[in-house]
Write the structure tokens for this entry.
Amino acid sequence: NAGVTQTPKFQVLKTGQSMTLQCAQDMNHEYMSWYRQDPGMGLRLIHYSVGAGITDQGEVPNGYNVSRSTTEDFPLRLLSAAPSQTSVYFCASSRQGVGNEQFFGPGTRLTVL
Amino acid sequence: GQQVMQIPQYQHVQEGEDFTTYCNSSTTLSNIQWYKQRPGGHPVFLIQLVKSGEVKKQKRLTFQFGEAKKNSSLHITATQTTDVGTYFCNNAGNMLTFGGGTRLMVKP
């Protein structure tokens, strides 16, 4: 199993550009989520999904969109990139149910100029 | 979601010294998870605590869940350079909220 994969690993954008961060998992996990991690800070939840067709907002959803058309994929879209969105983005997945171990992808390092 | 606070934010220790990080909540937690993130890496699951007063050990790491289920701690005995990284606690409730993490630096 590849686990959780994320692409790209690095990305540089100009202010106002849009892009999609890809996340895929091959463990048939129902739960998937997106976090951002800023230097010296913890993980903040952006959006999450409890299953295909179901998404919900986390702590910092503004400026981001998600969709979950399949169990495997959970892309994160930046609609109009801003310098404040410079961060490392992690995707994670887990089995359904409270308290299951989250498996994280390797992260995408995004810089917005 | 329920917020958890971690202290300290940073800790420098000499190799061989002990280290403890604390995770505190103002409300009762259903369970607590601990993760480790090596520099430049991604968070990796260490353990989950569910029961009041629970204590679990993994080699030199000891994890505790408070009697009131409002706090937890991770204690590392005789730190090694391989322990370097950021340790996060996570209230694995509905909102999947993480504490801010404690960054451990070990001087050889």
Summary: Chain B has no helices and eleven strands. The CA atoms of residues 40 and 85 of chain B lie 9 Å apart. The first strand of chain B starts at residue 4 and ends at 7.
